[in-house]
Design a protein that fits this description.
The protein has about 170 residues and is an alpha+beta fold. About 20% of the residues lie in helices and about 45% in strands. The protein starts with 5 loop residues before the first strand and ends with a helix.
């Protein structure tokens, strides 16, 4: 059986700076019609950055959860920007670390039930210290965390972010 759903109508309910909200009418595989509410997002790049048996994490307040969380460095892909360039840019802006090379490890779909967002996870190589250049509305702290601490941080719930969990489980395998 083919499970593809065909778009019959696209309706943008909201168009914002970083996302749009759509309510589309679809034709289901059994011939019935239904609706899909979708958050469209341009995607992001995240960086697994390792040095001296440590991994670089950032801690920042995430308004949607009303708490500070640990994450690997990441950021939104600007319109027309190559995802790898986003990774280079975000690593330096957020953490003051320059990489000579980025290797694409994999892509993740953070929540395929309602968003089109794709996050590409890169491994940074050839690291040198630089200077962080945070956006004016960005407040975070970057820390090198011992790899030996990460499993406990995951188990205790200190690390909850999906892209970070996937990247760290890959790094710790």
């Amino acid at each position: 059986m083919d499970f593809e759903e065909k778009t019959l109508e696209e309706n943008v309910l909201y168009s914002g700076k970083i996302l749009d909200l759509k309510k589309d009418k679809v034709l289901l595989p059994d011939g019935k019609e239904s609706f899909r509410e979708i958050v469209t997002h341009g995607g992001g790049s995240a960086i697994l950055c390792e040095k001296d048996d440590k991994i670089l994490l950032v801690r920042q307040f995430r308004y949607a959860y009303k708490e500070e969380i640990w994450e690997i460095p990441a950021g939104k892909i600007n319109t027309g920007e190559d995802p790898m360039e986003t990774a280079f840019r975000e690593l330096e802006e957020e953490c003051g670390v320059k990489a000579n090379e980025m290797e694409l490890l994999f892509s993740v779909y953070p929540s395929p039930g309602y968003t089109s967002e794709i996050i590409r996870i890169y491994r940074a190589k050839g690291l040198t210290e630089s200077r962080a250049k945070l956006d004016e509305d960005e407040f975070l702290v970057a820390r090198w965390v011992e790899k030996s601490r990460l499993s406990e941080m995951i188990k205790s719930g200190e690390i909850k972010d999906a892209k970070t969990l996937v990247a760290l489980l890959f790094a710790l395998r």
